[in-house]
Amino acid sequence: MATLQYLPSVKPSAIALGTAFNSLVAGAVLAPVFGDTYQRAQAANTKEEFFKSREASTAAASTGSAIVGSAIQTYGVGALINATGTMSYKGAAYLGSLIFFATSAPSFISQIVLEKRPLDTVAVGAVARVLETVGLSCFLTWWGTRTNPFD
Question: Does residue 89 contact residue 139 with C-beta atoms inside 8 Å?
Answer without folding.
Answer: no
